Amino acid sequence: MSAELLVLLIVVCTALAFDFTNGFHDTANAMATSIATGALRPRTAVLLSGALNLIGAFLSVAVAATVAAGIVDLSEVSGRALLDIVFAGLVGGILWNLFTWLLGLPSSSSHALFGGLIGSTIAALGWHGVIWSAGNKGVLAKIIIPALLSPIVAALVASIASWVVYRITKGSNEKTVSRGFRFGQIGTASLVSLAHGTNDAQKTMGIIFLALIAHGSAKASDPLPLWVIVSCAVAMAAGTCLGGWRIIRTLGKGLVDIAPPQGFAAESTSAAIILTSAHFGLPLSTTQVVTGSILGSGIGRPGAEVRWGVLGRMVTAWALTLPLAGAVGALCWAILHVIGGTAGVLVVFALLIVMAALIWFRSKRAEVNSHNVTDEWEPAPAATPQNRDDDPAARGNDDTAARRNDDTVGIG
């Protein structure tokens, strides 16, 4: 086996590892609201999402084409040098994904990938190596502007949708309305999962195709190989089935208190925007779209509480994703370059494995799983048993819990 082929195999494996982290990092995008409202049981939700992500990955390749040819200026670099850039960028994206997952922050996996790739490209080639703007292509048109607009548009549309839903159902039996929208959420959450697979799996397809171009195994004008599509679809589906419980908890319980009509409105908005962007080849951040939709559903629901502090932490993570993932990508390229050759790739690959393992073990100290993902975000102190019957608030909480249990669809 030649050194270049070995590096290509490492790059492909690293890309699929990123796809896997994208899966469990972004499970919350599709299923957080359905889990929070009880429309689907947690484990059932992530398995359903995984299956639909798998199917969605086969529906389009427009985004893959954007990623493969819309970030790195291929006229500036080729061959082994391009492979090194792609590999370093992938490592930057994976480490940022794992770090934000540990913190339970729904940052953008897409922007982590793009940031890592941009950072490694700048480190290797300078600023001119990145396609910043080229008509309606390039980083500005395809990544930065959509990143700024998509959560705002999603929040606006979802707030209107939520307001309309509550307006239409005003005066109706609350139990019947909640139960009906829980059933509706199963459909809308499934559509978001399908949309996520259509949009996000393609980004890794584009990265692998870029690596194949660098190796000389493919030309930029070639169609995307079937094995690339299948492997990326399977990797993302597997990651989704693992369940990114920390981020599911943040989106489902931390940002707003979600009722079934809100969840339905938020998921419908997210699916429509993500599928539209995939059709036009825009690699949108599904995380930002879904977060904007959930925020909008809280704004549109009369009397809903929006936790602006949680939103502030999310927005901070969004703002830092591109530059910090880029910094990690640049650092990885520098390490690889200093050591040189295949040895440099192997050292960076080993560092990735070690860092990923450390983050995983650290997450076990305060584990979030399918059993506690729907716990209250800020649980109130429980009333003591002897005073519980005399405490109106405690009795009210018991009544609310009882009604919730009666109303829950709980499929699965």
TrEMBL record:
One of its GO terms (biological process) is phosphate ion transmembrane transport. Residues 372-412 are annotated as: Disordered. Keywords: Membrane, Phosphate transport, Transmembrane, Transmembrane helix, Transport. Residues 387-412 have a biased composition (Basic and acidic residues). It is found in: Membrane. The chain crosses the membrane at residues 51-74, 81-99, 111-131, 143-166, 224-245, 315-336, 342-361. It is a multi-pass membrane protein. InterPro entries: Phos_transporter. GO terms for cellular component: membrane. GO terms for molecular function: phosphate transmembrane transporter activity. Belongs to the inorganic phosphate transporter (PiT) (TC 2.A.20) family. This is Phosphate transporter.
